[in-house]
Design brief:
Elements: E1 12-13, E2 20-22, E3 34-36, H1 44-47, H2 77-86, H3 103-106, E4 111-113
Parallel strand pairs: 3-4
Antiparallel strand pairs: 1-2
The structure holds zinc ion.
């Protein structure tokens, strides 16, 4: 089975917000169900070829937000997610937002992967988003 085939049921996680809505991996070598934290941007230097997809949930564009060119400042997944939650967690594509969606639920059962320098904390499941939720409108 070709891993990069576009299916009617998207199954790749957004490495920023954890939403399982991508048609192919955000970056070529990023494992499924893995959320990278603590890696310096741009991410293609760690995770290979980028997809330029835009997450329908948080709106992160892989390869653009983290590598916007010399005249803009890139945003890591962590920084982007903090801003997105602070702004109310509005879905980029509101039409595909499940009515029962919660950010907490979306972030359950995900593995966190960190750079090898931070080895003692790798694959921890309790992370900085705990206690954070989209601000009430
Ligand atoms: Zn996302």
């Amino acid at each position: 089975m070709n891993e990069l085939t576009v299916t009617s049921q998207p199954r790749y996680r957004c490495p920023c917000c954890g939403n399982k809505g991508l048609d192919c991996p955000a970056y070529q070598h990023l494992w499924m169900n893995v959320i990278p934290r603590g890696f310096p941007i741009p991410y293609h230097t760690h995770f290979g070829m980028l997809s330029y997809q835009i997450c329908g949930c948080c709106g992160y564009e892989f390869g653009a937000e983290d590598d916007p060119g010399p005249w803009a400042i890139g945003l890591s997944f962590e920084d982007y997610l903090d801003r997105w939650l602070a702004a109310g967690g509005i879905w980029f594509d509101g039409k595909i937002r499940p009515s029962s969606w919660t950010f907490e639920q979306q972030m359950q059962d995900l593995a966190i992967v960190r750079p090898i320098l931070d080895d003692h904390k790798s694959l921890s499941s309790s992370e900085s988003w705990k206690g954070k939720a989209p601000a009430e409108p």
